[in-house]
Amino acid sequence: MTRMTVGRVVASEIVRLHGSVLIAIHVICGLAAGLACGAYFAAAPYDPGLETDAFFQVLGAFMPLMVAIVVAMNIETEREAGDMANLLGVPSRRLGLAAKILVLWLLDLLALALAALAFCLPMAMVGGLDAPISALALATLGMAGGSLCLYLFSMALALRFGRNTTIAIGVLGTGISISSLGGLFNGLYSHTLSGVGSTPGITRWIPFTWPTRFGSLGIEQALALTMPGGEGLRASIGVTALDNLIPCLVFTLTLGLALLLWIGRFEDRRKVSD
Fold it and tell me: How does pLDDT run across 21-33, given as a tens digit for each residue?
């Protein structure tokens, strides 16, 4: 009997996603979001650096909803394909679940990277890309890292409560994420670095806010050096990042361990025939 390993399970998950609409959704949404925002901001009369900051804030703010949709669709497909036999019927459910989350998260990273690259194209054509490539990469990785907890949370919701509840909470999460920075394009209109300027407060403990916060701070740490008092601003950005990073790591690790323990005893009561 072939031994079940992480590599084999991940490869199996990738094969089963081959040709899935999820891959097309990630690629199309990533490119469309980047090109649309890039074209708009390239023609808009705002500060290019703040435009880039606003783009990553918006991209991160919609991560709770996008993650919820992707995870809900994936689990719904698993149910339709045989009552989740590919997840619950394997020798190690924990490995199967970990592989599924990893592959979906990597697709998320791909979509975010495509969005960032697509955004750069029209901005660079008009000479409006002020942030260095290193800042763009840091913002992209920050959004992806901050969204891992959302994948774990959405997976638990989709398994236990189904598609509609998962997506509804994703909508709520995006609203909370937007509010955490004072609203869409707040920094762009107020000419401030709203990622660091808005006081984290209780929002640092809310997972929905982490993708937009880390994405914004990734850009703002570069923009701060071009502003008066740049070193002080950059120090504040570091403190804000740490204030959010600690709860992010604690929640993600705790939720990940809890989910892996729970899946071993999970019994699906939401059958397709119900």
Answer: 899 999 999 999 9
